[in-house]
Amino acid sequence: MKFLKKVLFVLFIVFVIAQFFRPEKNQGDLATLDTFLNETNPPEDLHLILKTACFDCHSDYTRYPWYNSITPLNYWLADHIDHGKGELNFSNWAEYSLKHKDHKLEEVMDLVKKKEMPLESYTWTHKDAILSDEQIENVMAWTKEARMKLSNQ
Q1: pTM of the shown model
Q2: Cα–Cα distance, 15 to 30 (Å, whole number)
Q3: Omega before 72 within 30 of 0, i.e. cis
Q4: Calpha distance 56→61 (Å, rounded)
Q5: Cα–chain-centroid distance for residue 55?
Q6: Which residues constitute the domain of residue 70?
Q7: How do residues 10-19 score in pLDDT, each as one tens digit?
Q8: Number of structural domains found in the chain
Q9: Among the four residues 40, 124, 128, 135, which has the most C-beta atoms within 10 Å?
């Protein structure tokens, strides 16, 4: 029993010390999304969907939940965000070629249609990011329209 108490005490101390080490936050400027928003021109309802279901992991600005203050959860979130931005970063939209933009919008359509995005692990704590069938249809229609605009450029 004494051994277990000592182990738990050491683990507690390690946990407390770990709270002083945190990953860098993803808190860029929201203005970096302007190119994407101006070019794809999502209607207000789609803009809200993008804001609640996409931008936290796929842009340079993240709205962090309360549990981001707890190490090691903040490292898990940082890894999630880094991976998401590696796949698609709406803040870097201006840097993408037309072909790359079209491909990314096609992926958005495919992943949203299959309900693979937003990730289930994201929707556990962001219930407002769970897309209804109607919202999915709206995303599909908007991405088709945005792809058409790209093909005319």
Answers
A1: 0.84
A2: 33
A3: yes
A4: 6
A5: 5
A6: 2-151
A7: 888 888 787 8
A8: 1
A9: 40
